[in-house]
Amino acid sequence: MMSPVNPTTHDASELRFVLPLAGLDHLTRFALVQLEEDSPLFSLQSLEDQAVSLLVLAPGAVFPDYSPELDDAGQDALGLTRAEDALLLVVVRAGDTLAQSTANLLAPIIVNTATRTAAQVVLTGSSHPLQAPLAA
Predict the structure, then answer these.
(1) By the 8 A CB rule, do 73 and 18 touch?
(2) Quick check: 24 and 52 in contact, CB under 8 A?
(3) 10-residue stretch averages of pLDDT, the chain, 136 residues long
(4) Burial (Cβ within 10 Å: 0-12, 13-18, ≥19) of residue 26
(5) What span, in angstroms and rounded, lies between the C-alpha atoms of 118 and 84?
(6) d(CA 14, CA 135)
(7) Which single residue of 58, 59, 78, 119 could bond 40 by disulfide (Cβ 3.0 to 4.6 Å)?
(8) Are strands 102-103 and 86-93 parallel, antiparallel or unpaired?
């Protein structure tokens, strides 16, 4: 059901997580801020704890063939009924260099842009890596 949506065309600046981010169960409200114009990189900044910020990526720019399937439970939790409302993001672990930086393709963040709800979903039965290199 998922076709990646361009984050820059949707007003998804404040998101409410209905399924928690791994290790951040106590935080539910985040701001999505594009780092530079025309960049696929964003900061996911907690609105409840300013010390918490994650680097996220619209994966189509780096992983053009990445199109995970969201199961019915994930779609229901987010209230997703239309594929065009789904925004796909992945968490990036920044290394000292681009070659040392990775993206978590196993547990993407899905945003319902119509409701501004979000969830980090672990793809069960998936062969997508937890740490996919950003550079070959």
Answers:
(1) no
(2) yes
(3) 40 80 93 89 94 94 90 88 92 89 95 94 88 86
(4) exposed
(5) 15
(6) 30
(7) 58
(8) antiparallel
- Cα–Cα distance, 131 to 41 (Å, whole number): 17
**Run of H or E including 18:** strand 14-19
The CATH architecture of the domain made up of 7-133 is: Roll (2.30)
What is the dihedral sign for C-alpha 14, 19, 23, 25? positive
Residue 46 is inside which H or E element, if any? strand 41-46
Sequence spans of domains, the chain = 7-133
- Residue 131 in tokens: 């740490």
If you write DSSP's letter for every residue of 60-108 in order, what string do you get? GGT-TT--PPPPHHHHHHHT---GGGEEEEEEEE--SSGGG-EE--SS-
Q: Which residues contact residue 99 at a Cβ distance below 8 angstroms, ignoring those fewer than 6 apart?
A: 133, 134, 135
